[in-house]
Amino acid sequence: TAPGPRSYATLRDEAVKLFNSLQQLESERDPVPLMQGVLQTCLDLPPLVDEIYCQLVKQTTEPPAPGGQGDLHYWQLLTCMSCTFLPSPPVLRFLRFHLDRTENCFPASEMAKYACFIREALGKTKGRECVPSLEEILVLMQRQEMICTVHCPGAPACSVAISSHTTAEEVAQELVSRLGLSQSPNLFALYEQSRRREQPVGSATLLADVLTRFE
């Protein structure tokens, strides 16, 4: 059975909890579940999105060990945030300034590579129905794409590389081209299938959200 909705305290109390989670993140051996928990709280409580962005900018500004494990954990969570939520315009300007400053101060570093990735992601992010899956978080931490397997009738299963921003329509178009069906008069769509039902995936649906639902 699917878990029920999470219960939350006041925004102030939840902000304190998130701050404590960020402090814990620095030394966490397996940061992925903690990152997903922070993302889920932000999805459920949108007013906290700007707060977390500001906290992460603070934590990645003049860190005691630039490029160390703790510092990179903050950059990795910032990467996941950028692929899931857009901050308000004032915070977005503040964040972009921070990204530019990092690239200028630490050129060719891991932090600069994350900053570049985050900037590109912010230009594509429109909001998510679900937070990134554990698998998606892992690939985002490496600034990579996920591999999605699509089963096609009458053809072998196809592996497609997708990002956090890839829509069902984009994948369907790629498969139509790959299978040589571009001239076909038929319409094509993706379907998600579970034990109980099969349903079409909306053309604008993000495939990453579909994968999270399966997780």
UniProtKB/TrEMBL annotation:
Transmembrane ranges, per UniProt, are none
Domain MyTH4: residue ranges: 1-141
A Gene Ontology biological process noted in the UniProt record is: signal transduction
**SMART domains annotated for this entry?**
MyTH4 (SM00139)
Q: Which residues form the FERM domain?
A: 146-215
- Write down the InterPro entries for this protein, in alphabetical order: Actin_motor_Myosin (IPR051724), FERM_domain (IPR000299), MyTH4_dom (IPR000857), MyTH4_dom_sf (IPR038185), RA_dom (IPR000159)
Gene Ontology CC terms: cytoskeleton
Q: Where is the Ras-associating domain?
A: 144-215
Query: What is the name of the protein in this document?
Result: PKHH3 protein
Species in which this protein is naturally found: Anthoscopus minutus
Its gene is Plekhh3
